[in-house]
Design a protein that fits this description.
The radius of gyration is 17 Å and the shape is globular. It has 11 helices and 8 strands. The protein has a single domain, classed as Rossmann fold. The protein is of the alpha/beta class and 281 residues long. Strand 7, helix 10 and strand 8 form a beta-alpha-beta unit. An 8-stranded mixed beta sheet has the order 1-2-4-3-5-6-7-8, with helices on both faces.
């Protein structure tokens, strides 16, 4: 992977992480909160195996991308356009994991975007019926434990190593996620968090604020195809998020996978996501 710094205007720097041979056709990756593009390593590996040019967009405030205070979902696409123009991309599929999901939806506004892949994506949480989704679509076998109302020790997240992940996320880990943070990819996950949050907490806090606010996009008017990969056991972005986006986006399907969590779904199903994305070209 190559890290490249681009001028995103008004004195800001946009970090992008690329892999593969330069092409007019590409995948665009948006990382989750607490992370960075390097934290999407299993998806990079799967897409590289498919021979696709990859562009990871680092959101403002994470890693080496300048903070863009007040950023909102509707204008996330502006950063993607900086990268698309730089590399001469004419056609792309956008991927978004967790807090990267809103950025994927934002990308659908660009004429070059042919479809989207949501991975345990956040949903907007300002609609009148949002609580009904939370109540109806709880994660399986969670005893009601979800990320709603969690008080994070955000400073501690900046210093996480693989050995620390299980204790830090604790009750939010379903069995599949717990197995993952105990396994061979724990250090890889933790490194992505440390890189992403190295400059401070602003990127994560901006995500929290933006994701929960009105996205400023008419979801129903988006008719491009979107596949929403969602684990039934996800306690971070619970199944309510996937069901809400499926019901409100204009052309979305929900790929609900039994027993998968927020972290495990990326590692266990990255190749399935890439295979699905290739059908959009």
């Amino acid at each position: 992977m190559k890290n490249i710094l681009l001028d995103s205007g008004e004195g800001r720097v946009l970090e992008v992480v690329t892999s593969g041979e330069l092409s007019e056709r590409a995948f665009v990756f948006h990382h989750g909160g607490f992370g960075c593009s390097e934290g999407m390593a299993p998806l990079y590996r799967a897409a590289s195996d498919a021979g696709v040019f990859l562009i990871g967009i680092t959101r403002g405030g994470y890693a080496r991308s300048s903070r863009r205070e007040g950023r909102r979902t509707f204008n996330y696409v502006n950063d993607t356009r900086v990268a698309l123009d730089h590399f001469g991309v004419t056609e792309f599929v956008s991927f978004g994991w967790s807090s990267g999901g809103p950025a994927m939806v934002s990308d659908l506004q660009d004429s070059r975007c042919v479809g989207g892949i949501g991975i345990a994506s956040d949903a907007p949480r300002v609609s009148e019926d949002w609580q009904s989704y939370l109540d109806k679509y709880l994660p399986a076998n969670s005893d009601g434990v979800t990320s709603e109302g969690i008080e994070w020790d955000l400073e501690a997240a900046r210093l996480l190593y693989g050995r620390d992940l299980e204790a830090y996320f604790d009750l939010l880990l379903c069995p599949a996620d717990r197995g993952l943070v105990r396994g061979q990819y724990a250090d890889e996950l933790a490194e992505g968090i440390r890189i992403g949050m190295a400059p401070g907490l602003e990127g994560l806090l901006d995500d929290f604020e933006s994701d929960a606010d009105n996205w400023g996009i008419d979801l129903g008017a988006i008719k491009k195809p979107v596949a929403l990969f969602q684990g039934t056991d996800d306690r971070f972005c619970t199944p309510a998020h996937g069901h809400y986006l499926r019901d409100n986006l204009g052309n979305a399907e929900l790929v609900l996978i039994e027993g998968q969590g927020h972290l495990s779904i990326m590692y266990d199903h990255a190749s399935d996501m890439v295979t699905k994305a290739l059908t959009y070209f």
